[in-house]
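subagent[fold] <- orchestrator: predict structure for attached chain, return tokens only, no commentary.
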Amino acid sequence: MKCGKIEKYLFFLLPAGLLFFVASFFLSSKPGSLSQNYLYFIIIPLVLTLCFSAKSIVTTLYNDGFFMAGALVLIVLCLPVFWTENFGIPLLLYALRRAFTILTLLISVYLIVRRQPRVVYIIPYLTVTLSTFVALLALWRYNTDYGFLSGVRLMPLKGSFVTLGQFNNSIRIGWIWGAASLFSLWIFLNEKKLEKTWASLVPILIIFPQLLLMIITYSRGPLLALMVSVLVLFSFNYDRLLLQKKVLLFVGITFAAAFVGLLLATGVDSFVIAMQGLGEKLWERGLSLRLEVWQAVFQETGDHYFLGQGLKPDTKFVVASGFVYDHSHNFLIDIYRYCGIAGVFVMASYLIYALKISLKKNKQIQLWGILLFYGCLCLLTNGKYPLADVSEFWFVFWLPIAFITVLRTMEDNDAVLLH
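subagent[fold] -> orchestrator:
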């Protein structure tokens, strides 16, 4: 087979792989399956592509300053292995493997969007479709097992894709539902085919199952991050919001009627008791020892405030109350722990610039800027060191960064990507 035909097949294989990888966030159920999917759908097609076009690809990426800045950030995140007390080749290889995996995502998305830009248009619709399907199944299962007013916290169950069982905890599946809600809102505000039509009800209505799932997981951090992100999204799309005011009024009336119906069906007393129980659970959890965790990290880091403690194989630490944690529940504090103030400065500068360029340009890159903003807010209350393996962390952090990196180079992609 001629090289030209192989390259033609790879031209379609890599974009298809990205779509399958995004879908696997919702359709995989086994812990660790996301990493396997990434290997099969992204890394292998990328390696095959590089076999035929390595020189031109490397030249293009090398000349892109923002892409190189992202590569530099990954290097900075790896450097702490050299000043840790537990330096060793296995630890170095561990850090390099994770950095390389993230770098392959940046390269893959860069190549895919430049070659097949309509993939960027497909991903929001794919995400919304799959998330809605899974959300409805999850709500049906929750109501069957517990009942909507039971007050039982929804947890990811291993082996169940309905509850996003491949992920670690309820808060992190809240990240995914919040991101899907942002995709739905963006479609509502920016899809011109839906403009001034009742079809625009669809993306706004399907947000509510996702919001309900966020509530019953008691994901306070993602809920707060979503509320702030929605305000930012609305502020950048105020003119579009005015065009849909009749639809929003109808939605408001519909849900007010549904609320009254639920109140009458369950009884006022039962409903009030259930809502009080939900509020008490959210309030009682407070910051969930986060202030104590952050204080413990600062005490542990001590005088190593400039470059941090360095990466180490055992990340566990004990807080004053006796609980043991393996991360600080805040990605910037985790960076401070390992990389010090220098690492925080590098990462903060990179993210601020990424948000600046994404929130000032066209609608398509703005979507990923909003998602990155939302992700950063989520990671301030339950984040960890960004040198993370393939996980839900990627969906709200590295994936938006990858799209911002390439979309900033495409000046006219609104005309291509928006209908």
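orchestrator: received. Logging for downstream: The first strand starts at residue 317 and ends at 318. Strands lie at 317-318, 324-325.
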